Amino acid sequence: MAAGFALLFGMFLIVGWPAILLRERLVRVFLDTALVGVLVAYTGGAGSPYFSLYLLAALGIAWIETWPKVAVAAAALVAGYPAAVVATGGMGALGSTPVALRTGLIALFCVAVAFLGSEMQGFRKLAIRLSSTLAREIDRVESDERLISKFAPVVKVLSLEGILGWAVEAAHTVGGGPYAHVAALKGNNHRTILEADFDVCPSWWHPSIQRLVLQSCREGDTVRSEEEIHGIEGFMAIPLGTDEDEKWGAMIVGGSEYGAEEERALKLLAGGIGPALEDAEDAPGGLDQLTGLPNRASLHRVLRRELSYGRPLTVLAMQPTGFDDSDLASGGALLQRIGQRLTDGRQRAFRYGEEEFVVVLSGSGEGRARQAALTLQQQVSEEAGRQNDLPLTAAVGWVFAETGDEGSVLDAALRALEIAKGQPGGISGLPAGAQSLGRFVEDEKKQVLGIASTLVEALEAKDPYIKEHLRAVSSLALRIGSEISLPGEQMEALTSGAMLHDLGKIG
Question: What is the pTM of this model?
Answer without folding.
Answer: 0.49
